[in-house]
Amino acid sequence: MSAESSGAVTLRILGMHCGSCARTVEEGVRQLPGVRGVSVSFATERLQVEGSCVAAEVEARVRELGFEVAGAEGGASVEPQDTSSAAGPSGFFAFLRGQPDLFGATIVAGGLLVGVLLLRLLGVDSILGMRATSGLFGLGVVVVGLPVAAKGIRALVFAHRVTIDLLMSIAAAGALAIGETGEAVTVLLLFTLGEALEAFSAERARDSLRSLLSLQPRSATLLETENDGTVRTALRDVDRIAVGDRILVRAGERVPLDGVIERG
Fold first, then answer.
1. Are 175 and 183 contacting, i.e. CB atoms less than 8 angstroms apart?
2. What was the pLDDT predicted at 128?
3. How many Å apart are CA 118 and CA 124, to the nearest integer?
4. First to last CA, the chain
5. How far apart are CA 68 and CA 250, in angstroms?
6. Which of 116, 128, 161, 177 gets the highest tally of CB atoms within 10 A of its CB?
7. Given this model, what pLDDT does residue 79 score?
8. Backbone dihedral region of 74: left (phi > 0), alpha (psi from -120 to 50 degrees) or beta?
C-alpha cells in the first residue's frame, strides 16, 4: 500500500475472479467522497485511486464489497508475488483447495447432489426419504447460497451494481419458493464451479504476466556527465531513473526502460 502526497492511493486487491469483480470494486470506491479518479486492473489486481480520500477509507470500502487488501498491514509491498499455478485438472484442484470459499461451496453442493443420486439409485424413494432429501438440499442452498447472496447485496448497496451473484441468489430463492430444492442446489453448484474455473484461468493469466514482469531488470546503468565533460557510469534502481536520463545497455543485457536509442 502507498499513499503519496498528491492524494494517490495504490492497493493490491485479492479475490477478484472476473472483470465484473473489478468493475464492482471500481464503482464502489468511486462512491467515496473526495475520489476524483479510480482505476482497477484485473490482470495485476491493482487499484489506483486519486483524490483527497484517505487510504483507510478505501481499504474499508474494498472490504465492505467482500474483497481483501494485500499489504495493508505494515506498508507491505503491493507487488504481485512470484507464484505459479500448475496446469490441468491437478492444478485446478490444487488451486481450489487454496480458495476456502469456493472449495467449501463446491464440496457441499457437489456432495449433496452425489449423495442424493446414490440414494435414489439404491431405491430410497419413500416419503420420509424424499423429505430428508429436500431438507438436505435446502440446507445446502443456505450454506452455499448465503455467501453468494451477501456478495451480491454488498455490490448493490455499496457499488449500486446488479451483479451475477445477486441474480443467481434470486434464481436459487425462486427455485426454493416453488419447492425445487434440487434445482436450487444444482444452480448454485454450476455457478460456484464456473466461478472457480474463471478464477483459476485468471490466476494462470496472472502467472504468465508475472513471469514476463520478472524478466525486467531491476537496475540500470546510468550515464552521468561531470563538470569537466567526462562521463562516468553508476548503477541505479530503475525507480530512480528520471525522464531525460541517459542509460547504457551493454551487449547481451536486457533493456530496462523505454527510451530512444541515441547511439549503437
1. yes
2. 52
3. 9
4. 40
5. 43
6. 116
7. 47
8. left
